[in-house]
Amino acid sequence: MPLSEAHTPTAIRQHDSRTLSIEWADQAKSLIDVRALRLACGCARCVDEWTGAALLAPEAVPEDVLPIAIQPVGRYAIQIDWSDGHDTGIYPFERLRSLADQGLLSPPATGPAEGPS
Questions:
Q1: Which option is the CATH number for 5-101: 3.30.2020.30, 3.40.50.1820, 3.40.33.10, 3.40.50.12580?
Q2: What pTM was estimated for this model as a whole?
Q3: Cβ atoms of residues 12 and 21 within 8 Å
Q4: Are 72 and 11 contacting, i.e. CB atoms less than 8 angstroms apart?
């Protein structure tokens, strides 16, 4: 089944040292925190295949984890080699878009919080 435009990336780039940028065929753009992406790995080493329970402890992932290499998996996903040695996760484009649209992969806010003056 072909991917919809909402799930078809046209570009995947390093936005800055902590953020990936994905541009989608429907003209949307997602900025993705790389550590949040690593923590969202759905492979069998990170998530129990039978229960869906998380096996990956967030404190086990270094704060400065980075993608070392990103490879396409067919026309439906990417696979990432991480600086912490993890390399078994596959990130389907549909899941990436869904997580990004829900704000679950957003880069952390930087700078002072704005409040009433």
A1: 3.30.2020.30
A2: 0.85
A3: yes
A4: no
